[in-house]
Amino acid sequence: MMRRTALIASAVTAILLWLSPIAQAQTSDEPAQSAVPDFSAVDGHSLAAAPATEAAAPAKEKPATVVSAEPVEASVDKPLDSEMEDVKKALLKLKRDLVILEEDLLFPASSQVSVFLSMDLGDFFQLDSVVLKLNGKEVASHLYTDKQIDALYRGGVQKVYVGNVKQGDNSITAFFTGRGPSGRDYRRATTVDFEKSFEPTFVELAISDSTAKYQPEFRAAVSN
């Protein structure tokens, strides 16, 4: 009986020794729990635990954008200032053509007469005003500014009058008022007679100095 009990104890001991390595192996195969704190609720929001991976995948790099340092040229054929200048020139030309057309319509060649004024002066006369009479009737008058006088001194020509006259004999008289030698008031007049034809008539009034007489001279010339 004792021998049988010893045999059973020996068998149990052998079985336990045989099962011990297997139990240890099974225990070592179980994954250890991570001591990560629970963040299931942060500020009242629930967070879902993301599955852990052995290594994070590297972020995909975006291609670098190449920016040219060279200035971009404007694709404009003409500067805006140049275009505006062209428009102004075109408007001036159109205005001039309209004035010529208006004169042709209002003042036909068969009755048209135009009067112009030019100056070539030194120290003997300073013009203030001009009054123009056609066949005894006043048709134009002009009071001059310093800028206008300066323009005439520089060679400018002023159109004093344009109008219609009858066919045949006509007369134009111009009265000049200003300051003469020694700054005294000066008033002179000049008259020109002409015969109106079927062509336009042009009358030029010219003021100049007479160095021989130390006086200003006033002349009127007619051309067709």
Task: Describe the 3D structure.
By secondary structure, the protein is α+β, with helices and mostly antiparallel strands. The protein has a domain at 108-223: Immunoglobulin-like. It is 28% helix and 35% strand. It contains 3 helices and 10 strands, in the order αββαβββαβββββ. It has helices at residues 2-29, 80-106, 146-153; strands at residues 41-42, 45-46, 112-120, 126-134, 137-143, 158-164, 168-179, 185-196, 201-210, 215-223. The strands form 3 sheets. A 4-stranded mixed β-sheet has the order 6-3-9-10, with no helix packed on it. A 4-stranded antiparallel β-sheet has the order 5-4-7-8, with no helix packed on it. The longest helix is centred in the N-terminal third of the chain and has 28 residues, at 2-29. The model is unreliable at 29-37 and 39-57 (pLDDT under 50).
Q: Kindly report how far apart the N and C termini lie.
A: 171 Å
Strand order of the largest sheet: 6-3-9-10
Instruction: Write down how many β-strands occur, each being a DSSP E stretch of 2 or more residues.
Output: 10
Q: Give the helix level as a range of percent.
A: 25-40%
What's the overall geometry? elongated
Query: Taking Cα atoms only, what radius of gyration do you get, to the nearest Å?
Result: 57 Å
N-to-C order of helices and strands:
HEEHEEEHEEEEE
Oligomeric form of this entry?
single chain
